[in-house]
TrEMBL record:
It is an enzyme of class 2 (transferase). Residues 131-211 form the Beta-ketoacyl-[acyl-carrier-protein] synthase III N-terminal domain. The last Arg residue of the ACP-binding site is essential for the weak association between ACP/AcpP and FabH. The gene is fabH. Pathway: Lipid metabolism; fatty acid biosynthesis. Residues 280-284 are annotated as: ACP-binding. Belongs to the thiolase-like superfamily. FabH family. PANTHER family: 3-OXOACYL-[ACYL-CARRIER-PROTEIN] SYNTHASE 3, BETA-KETOACYL-[ACYL-CARRIER-PROTEIN] SYNTHASE III. Residues 1-26 are annotated as: Disordered. Keywords: Acyltransferase, Cytoplasm, Fatty acid biosynthesis, Fatty acid metabolism, Lipid biosynthesis, Lipid metabolism, Multifunctional enzyme, Transferase. It holds the Pfam family ACP_syn_III. This is Beta-ketoacyl-[acyl-carrier-protein] synthase III.
């Protein structure tokens, strides 16, 4: 880790500038200008799940930290969640415009085309660049890096990044290993061009992947591999699967390493981190990561108890809810980290800006 050396009022912000957070030194940084989130009104409790699965409220709470989760009703798709979160983020930013819409999702409305153009059109942004990102639960961090790149390159001056998943549409309702964990929701941020020393500037983004373990988290059927083979998919192969115990170990390892690297590349020390905003995969994973990073529980943001694991939406939903509830306030130095299918992981830093979360 690098110790701050540049003379400045705020050494953390100075390091964002010195390290060239999202582009070449002196280049344009991506700055959070607005944030919004949306969860569908339907709620499923652990007691509801007890009625249809061989599970218990006690098992779910002690192994995952989840008590309730929001789920879409029949007919509601990922784009519906994304449009609402996007609308709120644009309102939070105070200006309706964006010249690119990036959607991170695993549950696109259709295999083709991407869902982002539809989301853009429904937000009155027909004509702008719009595309999806597939990085499963790390989608928001991959999206931040992509949005920052668009801004640094001058391709866009203002990006609406939405992360939305209707995970319950691909979960096997009879698989107790996943049905108790995954849920639905959306979060979105507006990123504008700015400078790396401003509050809200996205810090250096650390990303990684390991495709040798792509079968730990997968939907086996529905893609070109299965479609081009002569055999029909086995029953249930259209559903999402996760090898939970193996995934757990990798999740802790990669979130820790990515977090340490992101903090170092921002020129921070771990002791500088005021809030950890980690992908809400499992309360035990979060506690382990926070403990190993030396961050006490009061610095850990968490909403898994009431929303479950919402895939790509997890981090922006957490940030928006935490900001709205006052657990995350302007000036907090926030460490973001995620891990999921791919395998893919990431981390970055941001000094929380003065924004009203909607
Ligand atoms: N209710 C009751 N029992 C359950 C259950 C449920 N919902 N799900 C699994 N079990 C059982 C298993 O069958 C197993 O029984 P056995 O010992 O008789 O074989 C036992 O509980 C332990 O299963 P295991 O999978 O080892 O539990 P775990 O402590 O690892 O917890 C997860 C399971 C999924 C909660 C946990 O592994 C996890 O969170 N993994 C990582 C998820 C993650 O980070 N994903 C990232 C992508 S988003």
């Amino acid at each position: 880790m690098t110790e701050p050396t540049a003379p400045a009022a705020d050494p953390v912000l100075a390091h964002h500038r010195r390290d060239g957070a999202t582009g070449p030194p002196g280049g344009r940084a991506a700055v959070i200008a607005g944030i919004g989130s949306y969860v569908p009104p339907g709620v499923v409790t652990n007691q509801d799940l007890e009625k249809r699965l061989d599970t218990s409220d006690e098992w779910i709470r002690s192994r995952t930290g989840i008590t309730t989760r929001h789920v879409v009703d029949a007919g509601t798709a990922t784009s519906d969640l994304a449009v609402e979160a996007g609308r709120r983020a644009l309102a939070s930013a105070g200006e309706p415009g964006a010249d690119a819409v990036v959607l991170a999702t695993t549950t696109s409305d259709r295999p083709c085309p991407a869902t982002a153009p539809d989301v853009a059109a429904r937000l009155g942004l027909t004509g702008v660049a719009a595309f999806d990102i597939a990085a499963v639960c790390s989608g928001f961090l991959y999206g931040l890096a992509t949005a920052a790149g668009l801004i640094a390159a001058g391709t866009a001056g203002r990006v609406l990044l939405v992360a939305a998943d209707a995970f319950t549409t691909i979960i096997d309702p009879l698989d107790r290993g996943t049905a108790v964990i995954f849920a639905d929701g959306a979060g979105a941020v507006v990123l504008r061009a700015g400078t790396a020393d401003e509050p809200g500037a996205v810090g250096p983004v650390v990303l990684g992947s390991d495709g040798t373990l792509s079968d730990l988290i997968e939907v086996p059927a529905g893609g070109s591999r299965q479609r081009s083979s002569a055999t029909a998919p086995e029953p249930g192969e259209e559903f999402f699967r996760m090898r939970g115990r193996d995934t757990y170990r990798h999740a802790v390892m990669h979130m820790l390493a990515a977090s340490e690297e992101a903090v170092a590349r921002a020129g921070w020390r771990l002791a500088d981190v005021d809030r950890l905003a980690a992908h809400q995969a499992n309360a035990r994973i979060l506690a382990t990561v926070a403990e190993r990073l030396g961050l006490p529980p009061e610095r850990q943001l968490s909403n898994i108890e009431t929303v479950g694991n919402t895939g790509a939406a997890s981090i922006p939903l957490l940030l928006a809810q935490s900001a709205a509830e006052g657990r995350l306030t302007a000036g907090h130095r926030v460490l973001l980290t995620a891990f999921g299918g791919g395998l893919a992981w990431g981390a970055t830093t941001v000094v929380w800006p003065e924004v009203k979360a909607l």
